[in-house]
Design goal:
The complex is a heterotrimer.
Chain A (H helix, E strand, L loop, with lengths): L17 H4 L8 H7 L3 E5 L10 E7 L2 E8 L7 H5 L7 H5 L7 H16 L5 H29 L3 H22 L8 E2 L2 E2 L5 H26 L2 H7 L7 H6 L4 H5 L7 H4 L10 E6 L4 H28 L8 H4 L20 H6 L6 E9 L2 E9 L8 E5 L1 H12 L7 H9 L3 H5 L1
Antiparallel strand pairs in A: 1-2, 2-3, 4-5, 7-8, 8-9
Chain B lengths: L3 H10 L5 H4 L2 E4 L5 E4 L2 H4 L4 H10 L2 H7 L4 H22 L17 H11 L10 H10 L1 H10 L13 H9 L2 H12 L2 H32 L4 H7 L5 H4 L1 H14 L11 H4 L9 H8 L1 H17 L14 H20 L9 H9 L1 H22 L3
Antiparallel strand pairs in B: 1-2
Helix pairs in contact in B: 1-4, 6-19, 7-17, 8-11, 9-10, 10-18, 11-12, 12-15, 12-20, 12-21, 15-18, 15-21, 18-19, 20-21
Chain C lengths: L1 E6 L6 H20 L11 E3 L9 E3 L9 H5 L5 E5 L5 E6 L8 H5 L5 E4 L13 E2 L1 H6 L12 E8 L2 E8 L7 E2 L1
Parallel strand pairs in C: 2-8
Antiparallel strand pairs in C: 3-6, 4-5, 5-7, 6-10, 8-9
Classes of the chains: A alpha+beta, B mainly alpha, C alpha+beta.
């Protein structure tokens, strides 16, 4: 069959004036190129039903996207700079702000960098509690992203159900840490509070309920033929491309790369638990979504194992004895950790000073690899420099590349399939 | 030139017979006394101008367009269906839906409250709009919405009794997309333009299969007159005779009224509200209901073609309104099914919708035509 | 110990697609008939806050030793120390800045800071958001006539089903916890 001949109509289209007036990050000559050829430059965002606070500069040819240039920074709050003026412990609430649903994973990475610097060994119970909460946050984030994807595809039930199920994870965080989001729960050397058995029971029941309802969600949205039609073979990235563009997390695993920080460099209790890295080969939008849907099941299994271990463990000993400092344990005597940080928070953590050097940790946050680097000068009680590279920032390039050749209507679907969260990428 | 009395008589001869309103009603008391309620029409019979107006209102063509199955029936269907849509979606989504206004009846009057809000809202015409067209077209939509009523009969109530009522109705309904495209054009905005383009593409994808499915039923019944078609279905409804045609017509209605999963012209994350993005106030209220009005009209056609139309037990006190009631109930039930699709579907892409319309559904439409021809041959040969 | 689980996205053929369509329809219909609602109708019903909920703060002035540690540790600089007539310094909380992290409560070695189960607060102006020590001692109060709540709702899962456990609202919404 011969190719259809293209006819071009001279439509009087002016390039958007904002290209010049706002000094947008576009290559020079884009506006002239777009008006002279048969392409149009479109702005998607910063405020648009289909995007967060980020502007996408889209070059379209007819209905097909030629190139997308991101213009992030609308929610940039300078977290890295703010962190240089705060005590190490005061940064814990700050670093979880970029991704509020993913709070425990975010503070976990930061706290582990401090623990690495001070060589603190975390008690077993605290490690399990941390792991459990990190996975609860992962479930919450995956549900959030699934909801956003659904509403991009116009599936309002697929939007409401994950948000409703996320409410149960919020409730779990509220019972454990006292706040629905932004738990500020992980502290250097352990966690802030102990978890009692009734809360553990609630989390177990909630996970069972989520598992049951996630099956319904799968039937109404995930395996819905409309969803499959919209996402399958859309914006596919090959394994090679995914590695080249530096994609991370579930989106990398959807391209067939078996990489998960939790497995490669296990932290906390991950190497003591049994779970699977979920991998798909296709690398298209649907498998990116499906990997995360399956990760929810894996997280539930991890949480249930944690709950089982935690129930067998005696209460108490949630903050490392290394933090308690002054009284060194005698020879042969086992160091006993603290049962609570109540009344001693500032005494324990307020005067933390890290030895001079650079400390880097990798964490598997819900949306992918999260990197923290603390640079300390060895004298001050605030970080000299705190570097955060969030998963959103890592996969932004791959996200933009995958959009080439898609239809304009697919832009929102691909956006949702990446679960792109502008505050996280902008930090 | 007709005289006043001749005109009055003409209206009366063709008036709608509703015993409850137009005739004397006999009431039996317990003490076997007989009481009469005088008819409403006789109250005005002596007053010169009013009797003409009352007679005109009950004149069949006028009654059909204005009351049943026309404007009033449409409004009666629209308000609860919008409420039902929001309520059933909320139920499936583990919510309550509109509740704050009239909590005791489950927020039933919420659409009316919304309408009132629209009514008193400022109507903004933006600078780029083609002002006369922009304000005109929402009102002009009443033309293609009410014209098909002229040829859709309900029992004895009809405006024009024509042997081509079904094709005429479909042709008049297909004027609605023209108005929507014109609305998008008059808005002169990027999103409205894209939206009306999408509307035009959707029109291409459903129109042929809608016509083919309807025509296969016309072939099956051997008549294009709605009254004939309903009479043919007195024993077996059309949906059993030719289920494939019913399916195709059903999906074509979803496409035509931009319900999910084909809510493509109005896709809110992509083109905000498509052709209607610039409208505010009462005009927005008008354009928003176009899709529902179209849904009502097509559901009327679906009930007539496939569900046996106004066939149903006759209710004596309602007289001519009895078939109206049955048709209305069938139509409303159908509309309830259509709005339910919102709860469990996302939205197809435009090219996918076009592909579905021109490949799968077109195939089914041809099959339905074949079934009708086959049944027709069997019927003529007298094998049944 | 992490294994690898390979997943395969479904590629349904025509009949399977119809089955999947009906599947989605079935789930929708089931929920429409028997919904598993989880809405808490907020002003009429309140979510039950668990023990240790990080709500608004109440300050016990008799226990305070003016050690300033709560002001030091506050990540948002929301705590100001003000000089009282008796010569000691007592904290004020600026709720325009407070992020409810309760580092101050964990810091206080004398237990002068207490939490409440209440956080649904509204202020008329920014100036009002700075709660002085006197206001902190009394804790938040809601006028009886402004209350609309009838129930306190708690999420509970019984036998794999989510139950909204309703209890009649207590006389006082604000409960101070130690």
């Amino acid at each position: 069959m011969s190719e259809m001949k293209e006819y071009s109509l001279p439509v009087p289209v002016k390039p958007p004036a904002e290209i010049k007036s706002l000094e947008l990050p576009v290559p020079p000559g884009l506006d002239e190129k777009a008006t002279k050829g048969d392409e149009i430059v479109l702005f998607v965002g910063p405020q648009h039903g289909g995007s967060g606070h980020m502007r996408l500069i889209v070059r379209v040819h007819g209905d097909v996207i030629r190139e997308v240039i991101p213009d992030p920074g609308f929610v940039h709050r300078g977290v890295e700079k703010l962190a240089e003026n705060k005590l190490y412990v005061q940064n814990i609430p700050l670093v979880e702000r970029p991704a509020i649903m993913d709070c425990v994973n975010f503070s976990l990475g930061y706290v582990r960098a401090i623990e690495q610097a001070l060589d603190i060994e975390v008690p077993e119970r605290a490690r399990y509690i941390r792991t459990m909460l990190a996975e609860i946050c992962r479930i919450g984030t995956h549900f959030y992203d699934a909801g956003i994807l659904s509403v991009f595809l116009g599936h309002t039930t697929g939007f409401m159900w994950p948000f409703a199920l996320r409410e149960l994870t919020c409730e779990a965080l509220m019972r454990v840490a006292g706040a629905r989001i932004t738990a500020s729960y992980v502290v250097p050397g352990g966690v802030r509070r102990d978890v009692d058995n009734s809360t553990l029971n609630y989390i177990y029941e909630a996970m069972t309920y989520i598992q049951r309802k996630a099956k319904d969600f799968e039937r109404i949205f995930v395996r819905n033929p409309v969803t499959i039609a919209r996402l399958k073979d859309v914006a596919a990235l090959s394994k090679k491309e995914a590695i080249k563009y530096g994609i991370v997390g579930p989106f990398l695993r959807a391209c067939g790369v078996e990489y998960d920080v939790r497995a490669v460099e296990p932290y906390d209790a991950y190497d003591e638990l049994t779970w699977d890295i979920v991998v798909a080969d296709e690398g298209d939008s649907y498998s990116r979504f499906l990997v995360r849907v399956n990760e929810i099941q894996q997280s539930i299994s991890i949480i249930n194992q944690c709950i089982k271990t935690l129930k067998d463990m005696p209460q108490g000993n949630i903050v490392s004895a290394d933090v308690a400092g002054k009284k060194k344990a005698k020879e042969g005597e086992e160091k006993k950790g603290l049962d609570t940080v109540n009344g001693a928070f500032f005494r324990l953590f307020g005067r933390l000073t890290l030895p001079a050097g650079e400390y880097t940790t990798l964490t598997e946050a819900a949306r992918g690899t999260l990197l923290y680097t603390i640079v300390s000068d060895g004298k001050s009680n605030v970080p000299y420099r705190l570097r955060i590279v969030t998963p959103g920032w890592y996969y932004l390039k791959g996200f933009m590349e995958s959009l080439k050749g898609c239809r304009l209507a697919d832009l929102q679907a691909v956006y949702g399939s990446f679960g792109y969260f502008p505050p996280e990428a902008d930090r | 030139m007709l005289s006043y009395n001749a005109l009055l008589e003409m209206f009366r001869q063709n008036s709608v017979g509703i015993p409850l309103i137009t005739r004397k009603v006999v009431l039996y008391h317990t003490a076997t006394k007989v009481a009469y309620i005088p008819p409403v029409t006789s109250l005005f019979a002596k007053i010169p101008i009013l009797n003409l107006i009352v007679a005109l209102l009950f004149w069949k063509p006028f009654f059909a367009v204005l009351f049943a199955p026309g404007l009033v029936c449409m409004l009666i269907a629209l308000l609860p269906i919008i409420w039902f849509e929001r309520k059933v979606t909320a139920r499936v989504q583990w919510r309550y839906g509109p509740l704050e206004i009239s909590r005791d009846i489950g927020g039933l009057i919420q659409p009316m409250a919304d309408g009132m809000r629209y009514f008193f809202q400022e109507v903004i015409t933006h600078r780029e709009a083609h002002r006369p067209y922009f304000l005109q077209f929402p009102l002009l939509t009443f033309l293609p919405v009410l014209l098909p009523i002229l040829v859709i009969p309900v029992g004895a109530i009809y405006a024009i009794n024509t042997p081509y009522s079904i094709p005429a109705a479909i042709a008049l309904i297909s004027l609605i997309p023209m108005i929507i495209v014109a609305i998008g054009w008059a808005s002169n905005s990027k999103y409205a333009y894209v939206g009306s383009l999408r509307e035009a593409f959707m029109y291409f994808s459903y129109e042929i299969i809608l016509i083919v499915a309807a025509m296969s039923m016309v072939i099956l019944y051997g008549s294009a007159n709605a009254i004939e078609i309903v009479r043919e279905q007195s024993v077996v409804p059309g949906v059993i005779l030719n289920p494939v045609a019913a399916l195709v017509f059903f999906i074509a209605i979803i496409m035509a009224t931009s319900r999910f999963p084909f809510e493509i012209p109005e896709a809110d994350p992509e083109v905000v509200f498509g052709p209607f993005v610039e409208y505010t106030g009462i005009i927005f209220g008008l354009v928003m209901t176009i899709a529902y009005e179209k849904l009502y009209l097509l559901c009327l056609l679906f009930s007539i073609l496939f569900l046996g139309g106004w066939n149903g037990p006759f209710i004596p006190p309602l007289g001519d309104l009895s078939p109206v009631l049955w048709l209305f109930l069938k139509t409303f039930a159908l509309m309830m099914i259509f709005v339910f699709f919102r709860t469990f579907y996302g939205r197809y892409r435009l090219d996918q919708a076009l592909k579905i319309g021109w490949s799968t559904l077109m195939g089914f439409a041809v099959v339905s035509l074949g079934i009708s021809l086959g049944l027709g041959v069997i019927n003529i040969a007298g094998w049944l | 110990m992490a294994g690898v689980k390979k997943i395969k996205p479904p590629s349904p053929d025509f009949l399977e697609t119809i089955k999947l369509h009906l599947d989605a329809f079935g789930v929708g219909l089931r929920e429409a008939v028997k919904p598993s609602r989880m809405t808490v109708q907020y002003p009429r019903e309140l979510r039950k806050r668990p023990k240790g909920f990080r709500g608004m703060l109440v300050f016990d002035i008799s226990k305070c030793i003016s050690c300033f540690q709560c002001a030091f540790v506050c990540p948002a600089n929301a705590i100001h120390m003000k000089k009282a007539p008796n010569g000691k310094y007592y904290p004020c909380v600026d709720y325009a800045k407070c992020i409810f992290c309760h580092f101050c409560r964990d810091t206080c070695s004398k237990g002068a800071w207490k939490t409440t189960n209440f956080m649904d607060v509204a202020f008329k102006s920014v100036d009002e958001m700075l709660l002085t020590t006197e206001k902190l001692v009394n804790g938040p109060e809601i006028p009886e006539e402004e209350r609309e709540d009838e129930y306190v709702v708690e999420y509970e899962i019984r036998g794999g089903k989510l139950v909204l456990k309703k209890e009649t609202s207590p006389d006082r919404i604000v409960e101070v916890e130690d």
